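Please fill in the sequence for the structure shown.

STRUCTURE ENCODING:
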């Protein structure tokens, strides 16, 4: 699908001093103000501990499978493939 946006627009309210400084930095670096905002968001998100990621809420929701699956996944996968080859 040509022309599909890979970025989504948002509206942000900046203090006048922030806007003036952002505009100056954008001109000096020859990038858009939007690009600087995206870079700033990336910096903030990089500092978020993994435990604060909302995907961590999914951990432990399902109580199934062997308790040592993470450590022995290769063994379980090999057994599964072996069992399927016998069928």
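FILLED IN BY: designer on duty
SEQUENCE:
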């Amino acid at each position: 699908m040509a022309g599909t946006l890979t970025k989504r627009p948002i509206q942000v309210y900046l203090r006048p001093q922030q806007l003036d400084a952002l505009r100056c930095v954008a001109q000096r670096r020859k990038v858009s103000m939007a690009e600087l905002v995206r870079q700033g968001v990336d910096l903030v998100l990089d500092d978020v501990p993994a435990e604060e990621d909302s995907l961590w809420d999914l951990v432990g929701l399902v109580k199934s499978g062997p308790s040592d699956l993470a450590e022995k996944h290769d063994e379980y996968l090999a057994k599964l493939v072996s069992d399927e080859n016998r069928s």
